[in-house]
Design a protein that fits this description.
transport; 1% strand; 2 strands; 458 residues; transmembrane; Cat_transpt; 20 helices; mainly alpha; ion transport
Length: 458
């Protein structure tokens, strides 16, 4: 009965179901007394449910601080939930299947292909193994670097544990920490933490497809003769090039704009030297791409800066990784479509290649559904939270659906209804608006062709 029920689910429904199962199990575990500090703050089931959804959806919003509520066992479970949320339950099961040298059924291969956001099912095993090597390799190296700061600060036991926790959270773009209730504000001028955390956030947000592509390029560069940097990296796929170029533009432009808007704000960066100002500005730009860490208070940042941050949150990271948002590829294709329309081009192109109409339609669908869900959630929040200002609520709504996790210290103030709305936004944002939409409706392919017509717009 159980197996026939699972078989009856579509690929998108099974993906959605896998996240829901992990959330339910995680909530059950973290609501148990043995995962809590005995003298910690009083909590209810909804508090743990909210936190677990945020962990599995790698968001970072929380109604109770991890460091104050959960003990070593609870924090270990938190790390596991963030790792599962970042990689996906489907990929973990597939990894176990491959490790046991068992064959995967065709339906399971299709499910894994969808979970990894792969365009084809070619060589899924090696792709998955490489993705896991990158994940655990970067997390391990980063944890060792963080230990050089944390062990002298917290001692051997807590220093090692806290370093591993932060490394996992940063790579998975989860935004949780176990250092207190002020995120990373105590480390605002710490170069080691700023550098390694931003590196992990960017790495996780690039997407596994880009890492596989980069891995092959590096391998060719070192093991093929003659060594030619330009020729090697020119072979990167257009997907990887679009992700890397768009990410670079967003980071550089975002850092400069953030610095320019805040450089005279004495509540944020005005009292720092130029290097420190750019370091803080760069960190905020990176973390707004769905990480959720904070080294400054967003209640102190100026209104134009918060608008910039909200735009960055909406864009997010790359597909097939640990980031959320509409994705940098969606933003890039939208820009290319706009550029093509202005220049009178009949096709949308990138690097002398035509972007398929199917991709253009998917881009528009993602945009429309993302903003439809966002505005629905925002309007509902406005109606159930009449005593909270509209801008902080919009900031919170975008942070939730883009799985960012930054907040204007608003989350604990939300009512039960408000928290449930944020939970739905986080879940839709992590699973993917299109995945959720398709899992709720039955798609029917139509082969009928109709005559064309023209309609005036604009």
């Amino acid at each position: 009965m159980k197996r026939s029920f699972i078989k009856s689910l579509s690929v998108t429904q099974r993906l959605t179901f896998s996240f829901a199962i992990v959330i339910l199990i995680g909530t059950l575990l973290l609501s148990m007394p043995f995962t809590h500090y005995q003298n910690g703050p009083e909590t209810v089931y909804l508090d743990h449910f909210f936190n677990v959804v945020s962990m599995v959806c790698v968001t970072g919003l929380s109604v109770v601080p991890v460091a104050e509520v959960y003990n070593g066992i609870g924090q270990t479970i938190t790390m596991m939930l963030m790792q599962i949320g970042g990689l996906g339950l489907v990929t973990l099961i597939a990894m176990s299947t491959f490790a046991l040298k068992r064959k995967m059924r065709l339906s399971d291969q299709t499910l894994l292909q969808s979970a990894l956001n792969r365009g084809d099912s070619k060589d899924l095993k090696h792709y998955l193994f490489f993705a896991y090597k990158v994940t655990f390799g970067l997390e391990a190296i980063a944890a060792l670097v963080i230990m050089t700061d944390f062990i002298p600060r917290f001692g051997w036991k807590n220093g090692i544990f806290n370093s591993i926790f932060l490394a996992i959270s940063a790579f998975c773009n989860a935004g949780f920490d176990n250092l207190g209730n002020s995120s990373l504000k105590d480390f605002v001028l710490n170069p080691t933490l700023n550098l390694i955390v931003t590196f992990l956030i960017i790495s996780g947000g690039l997407g596994f497809a880009v890492w596989v592509d980069l891995g092959l390029a590096v391998k060719k560069f070192f093991f093929e003769r003659p060594h030619c940097y330009g020729a090697t990296f020119r072979k990167l796929s257009n997907q990887s090039r679009l992700v890397i170029q768009t990410t670079t533009v967003i980071l550089v432009l975002g850092t400069f704009l953030s610095w320019f808007l805040e450089k005279d704000n004495s509540k944020t960066i005005a009292n720092y030297n130029l290097f420190q100002q750019f370091m803080v500005s760069f960190f905020q730009t990176v973390t707004m791409r769905t990480a959720g860490f904070a080294t400054i208070s967003y209640n102190d940042t100026l209104a134009p800066t918060n608008i910039l941050y909200m735009i960055q949150m909406v864009i997010g990271g790359a597909p097939g990784g640990t980031a959320g948002g509409i994705k940098v590829t969606t933003a890039a294709i939208t820009f290319l479509l706009f550029k093509a329309e202005l220049s009178g081009q009949s096709e949308v192109t990138f690097r002398n290649r035509i972007i398929a109409n199917k991709t253009i339609k998917q881009t528009m669908t993602v945009l429309i559904f993302f903003f439809a869900v966002l505005m629905t959630g925002y309007i509902l929040l406005l109606s159930v939270e009449p005593n909270i200002a509209p801008i902080p609520l919009l900031f919170e709504s975008i942070s939730a659906i883009a799985t960012v996790g930054v907040s204007m210290d608003l989350t604990p103030q939300l009512s039960t209804a408000g928290r449930l709305i944020i939970i739905v936004l986080m879940f839709v944002g992590r699973v993917g608006p299109i995945t959720v939409l398709i899992s709720l409706i039955q798609r029917k392919e139509k082969t009928i062709q109709y005559a064309t017509t023209d309609i005036l717009v604009g």
